[in-house]
Design a protein that fits this description.
about 210 residues; alpha+beta; Arc Repressor Mutant, subunit A; Diphtheria Toxin Repressor, domain 2; SH3 type barrels; six-stranded antiparallel sheet; two-stranded antiparallel ribbon; 8 strands
């Protein structure tokens, strides 16, 4: 059963990705029934963690955002630990961090941050501080000739991360868009490892920053 912290964490993750947040979207991501998601959202609203607009859009309150950020910070620090200190790959640590994050106290959180020398970003490129000020652009919104460095890859579809790594698309990779196929066809990019093609839906998970930023 998904708890309060899981819901708030996913809401903030969706918020960071610029997605519209509804009960249906959360039910799909958290793999729960729509009635279960709706019931939990009612509870969270009654406890002051979120508000729900007439159209169904969910917004975090300041208290909800504070708690959500606490969980995301712990999650992302654990990911840094698993990659930087334990040698795991960036694409396999999201699920493992989720298992561990609820066992981290505030004291351990700060000790972990200090031991890691206060990293700015997790291995997927998400900020460990509350706000990301980098001028990020989704890969599917770039035009042929545009390029930059992969700064961030969403974990909302964790199952695709190994594939992206396999085709050479990972945080820190430089790329240039070579072609956009018509009719929502694939995006083809050039990387130091060679060309790679991916669908628009996958490209939307990747955010790029100018190499000069």
């Amino acid at each position: 059963m998904r708890g309060v912290e899981d819901y708030l964490e996913e809401i903030k993750r969706l918020e960071e990705d610029g997605e519209r947040i509804t009960a249906t979207v959360l039910a799909r991501i958290l793999e729960v029934s729509l009635p279960s998601a709706s019931e939990m959202l009612k509870r969270l609203a009654s406890e002051g963690y979120l508000t729900r607009e007439k159209g169904g859009t969910i917004l975090l309150t300041p208290e909800g955002r504070r708690l959500a950020h606490t969980m995301l910070r712990r999650h992302r620090l654990i990911e840094c630990l698993l990659v930087d200190n334990l040698g795991m790959s960036w694409f396999e640590v999201h699920g493992e961090a989720h298992k561990l994050e609820h066992a981290i106290s505030a004291r351990v959180e700060e000790a972990l941050a200090k031991a890691l020398d206060y990293p700015d970003y997790c291995p997927h490129g998400h900020p460990i501080c509350p706000v990301d000020l980098r001028p990020l652009r989704k890969l599917n919104e770039l035009e042929p000739g545009d390029g930059g460095v992969i700064a961030q890859i969403s974990e909302l579809k964790e199952e695709v991360l190994p594939y992206l790594d396999q085709i050479g698309l990972r945080p820190g990779t430089e790329l240039t868009v070579k072609d956009l196929a018509p009719m929502e066809g694939p995006v083809t990019v050039e990387t130091p490892a060679g060309p790679a093609s991916l669908g628009r839906e996958l490209a939307a998970l990747i955010r790029v920053v100018s190499a000069e930023a």
